[in-house]
Structure to design on (225 residues):
């Protein structure tokens, strides 16, 4: 069905868990993102009914066992990873972008979902809007579980609990947001060079090893910002 209706334009990313392609619908000429990956597709299923400016629209999400296929909105813009190659962000720019990411995460967390892979490459600036993408590592929080079943995330941005110490939850994403903020301001991980002033104090609280000592929710972090 995919091959009959769409043309593959470009391979965007490939890893042992799957691949991400830019495709074009033959009839309309519209471009979309096609994801194929192994793991849990539960979060994509929940996002099918969601329309929010700081998250991509999910049009189709199908699963066969551990194999997932997702068609989502193509977001035109540059990733923070690309933009950080040229220059750092000001505190005002950082606050604006991270507040928008907090809004996106509030939607996810309200669905009992945890992103688990917040990093510069997974944030696209579409004009003045920050859009959080890539939910391949995301999972639903399960209150009865003691730890995540899969160790997923990006080294440096992943919270300590993502390495099997405990189950990831909303505070896991707050840790990654703290690292992201520091990288936007200084170009370094907070363990190497912490941002100065009030932003540095906010980042320090976000990135505490003990989740109980971080902000309790992204709404609380938004208030601080």
């Amino acid at each position: 069905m995919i091959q009959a209706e769409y043309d593959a334009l470009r391979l965007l990313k490939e890893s042992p868990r799957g691949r991400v392609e830019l495709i074009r619908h033959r009839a309309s000429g519209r471009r979309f993102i096609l994801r194929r990956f192994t793991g849990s597709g539960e979060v994509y299923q929940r996002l099918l009914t969601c329309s929010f400016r700081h998250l991509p629209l999910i049009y189709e999400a199908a699963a066969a066992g551990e194999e997932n296929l997702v068609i989502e909105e193509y977001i035109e813009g540059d990733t923070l990873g690309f933009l950080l190659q040229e220059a750092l962000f000001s505190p005002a720019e950082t606050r604006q972008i991270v507040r928008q990411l907090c809004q996106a995460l509030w939607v996810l967390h309200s669905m009992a979902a945890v992103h688990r892979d917040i990093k510069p490459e997974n944030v696209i600036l579409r004009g003045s809007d920050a859009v959080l993408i890539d939910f391949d590592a995301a999972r639903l929080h399960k209150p009865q579980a003691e730890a995540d079943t899969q160790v997923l995330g990006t080294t440096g941005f992943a919270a300590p609990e993502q390495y099997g110490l405990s189950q990831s939850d909303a505070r896991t994403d707050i840790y990654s947001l703290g690292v992201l903020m520091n990288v936007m301001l200084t170009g370094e991980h907070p363990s190497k060079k912490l941002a100065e002033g009030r932003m540095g104090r906010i980042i320090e609280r976000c990135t505490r090893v003990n989740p109980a000592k971080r902000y309790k929710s992204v709404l609380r972090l938004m208030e601080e910002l």
User: Anything to note?
Assistant: The longest helix spans residues 91-110.
